[in-house]
Amino acid sequence: MEKPRLVRDWRGRPYLVGPDARDLTGRPRNWMFWLPWAAMVAIAPLQYGYAAATPALITLRGGSALAALLPLAAWIVCQAVTAVPAIHLVRRGRLSPRGALWAGAALSGAALLAVAAAGGPPAVLIGYALLGGAGGGLVYGVCTETVARWYPERPATRVGFVTGAYAYGAAPLALVAGLDPHSLQPAFAVSAVIALAAVGVAAHFVRLPPPHWWPSEVDPRRHALDRLILRRTPPAVRQFSMGQALRTGALSRLAAILACAGAVSLFDVVALATAGKAAPWIALTLLITLNGAGRACAMLVSERVGRRRVLGAVLALLGAGQLVLAAGLAARSAPLVILGAVLAGAGGGAFYPLIAGLVREFFGEERTAEIHGVVYSAKAVAGVLGIGLAALPAISASPAAAFVLMAAVALLSAAASLGLRVPGRPATLPTQV
After folding, report:
1. C-alpha dihedral sign at 261, 262, 263, 266
2. In terms of pLDDT, which residue wins out, 120 or 270?
3. Among candidates 310, 413, 412, 369, which has minimal Cα distance to 155?
4. Residues 6+ apart with CB under 8 A from 244
5. Global pTM?
6. Using N-to-C axis directions, what is the helix angle for 31-43 and 184-205, rounded to 10°?
7. Rounded distance between C-alpha atoms, residue 130 and residue 111, angstroms
8. Tally of CB atoms within 10 A around 335
9. 5 has which bridge partners?
10. pLDDT tens digits, residue range 165-202?
11. pLDDT band for position 400 (50/70/90)?
12. Contact (Cβ atoms closer than 8 angstroms) between residue 346 and residue 49
């Protein structure tokens, strides 16, 4: 077993170099990446899968769109507010990854079974929204924290890839909802079994490395002096406390961007699912798939050109997708709707990991979980706004106009991203010394 060494870089940041992942867990490090990825794929039907299945659920159970979408809005709120304390407790050692994942497996499986059972609104609201939201938040929080800790040399990119599975993992269920709505309940039941198995396997094997762990094959001092990293994704000026971060304008701006862009992204899924024949099911499947795949691509590009530039670009892409969707729905043109779905999907999920990466680069790594938790909690607001708007009868009567409104919100978010500045770093150089 390799003896660990504690070294520091030019900023004074500590690194515990070694021991190897095999010595700590008995398995290669990539196990701590692919197991969380599989767990996130397995629970994806809880959010985007349910949204895509909304029209079929209304057909099977009856009732209004508002009644069918209310559990989804409640689920998003519960997931957002559960993921934040889960990450915090895991970081503090007060919650074990194994216990959190086992609980997440049981709650997520129960939630999917609640949807498959086709019970009344109270059963769906409690079983799916409340329990499933808590389960989804536990799995999301533990999986992202695990990947970030095992890949400290590229945490944002690796986490972006894993969170992408949270979206494209629902594509098979979206296909079932579009091709054969009557097979939807068995599909949710199968999804429950898969979620229980995949998250359960992750719970059995996933472990966290020691604090400040660093892989021995990467020189931490040389990594900290990498010119591309310092130029494109520079580290924080200093380590901010929660109170200091709250007093900066950057934190509130990031939260506002996430709330607005998140509302547009969630609105797209629900609105496309309920738009009728003008929006073929293939458009919705593409939207969900690209929503997840776009996250990994955006993070790779951001390492080359900078996260703020890519954030502005994906938000502009999201806004352009809304305008194309509006034109496609107004003209009842399936090709335009599919093109709009491609654009909206590519920009509709990438902002999540980009904002998480900016939080780390703006405020430091010591309090990343707490500070990002405040920003990520804005997803609860996004869920209420996006799904609430999609459920309004006026929106259903004029979906093209609604997409134009969403385009304005997305483009406003893109404009707000241009004003992001690194806290503590002067905007201009002094003219006199």
Report:
1. positive
2. 270
3. 369
4. none
5. 0.90
6. 160
7. 9
8. 11
9. 17
10. 989 999 999 888 888 888 888 999 999 999 999 999 99
11. confident
12. no
CB contact set of 426 (below 8 Å; sequence gap of 6+): none
- Dihedral sign for Cα 225, 228, 229, 231, please: positive
The pLDDT value recorded for residue 278 is: 53
Which string of b and e fits 279-288 if b means at least 16 CB within 10 Å? bbbebbbbbb
Give the DSSP H/E element, type plus range, for residue 15.
strand 14-17
Radius of gyration of the chain (CA): 21
| Nearest one of 232, 227, 225, 408 to 311, comparing CA atoms | 232
Q: Extract the tokens encoding 266.
A: 């969630």
Average pLDDT, the chain: 89
Q: 405: closest CA among 426, 420, 419, 390? A: 390
State the pLDDT at residue 428: 54
Average pLDDT of 3-8? 85
Q: How far apart are CA 330 and CA 253, in angstroms?
A: 34
Dist CA 89 CA 76 (whole Å):
20
Q: Is the pLDDT of residue 280 over 90?
A: no
At 68, list the tokens: 């069918």
| Per-position DSSP letters for 67-96, written without gaps between them | HHHHHHHHHHHHHHHHHHHHHHHHHHTSS-
- Does position 18 have pLDDT exceeding 60, yes or no? yes
Report how far residue 194's alpha carbon sits from residue 213's, in angstroms, rounded to the nearest whole number. Answer: 32
